[in-house]
Amino acid sequence: MNSDTQVVPGAGAGIGATATLVRTDDVNGVMRLITGVGTSPDSPVLSLTYSSPFEQIPYAIIISPANSVAAKNFNNIFVPLSSVTQAGFDVNSGGSALPEGAEFDIYYSAGF
Asked: How many other C-beta atoms lie within 10 A of the C-beta of residue 10?
């Protein structure tokens, strides 16, 4: 795991939310989000910052569920195009708030 890559919970993940990297090499990895209390719809729930910025903006950030909680709620999370930069990206909740106290494991891959 690249220890300089960071992931933090966003405001939409609720108070007391935690975010960790299960494994990563910047381009690919697994993010873990444990939601807190008071989750919000249409809000950032995760923000990932690469260990060092890429030379170009990735063409795509692909996310997919890595556990049953993420699979059940997968139609309600997305990566906003406007959040994708050379330095990282956000994952947002959709039209519904994510369940409180739930553990989401999410695969990600940056496409170039």
From this structure: 20
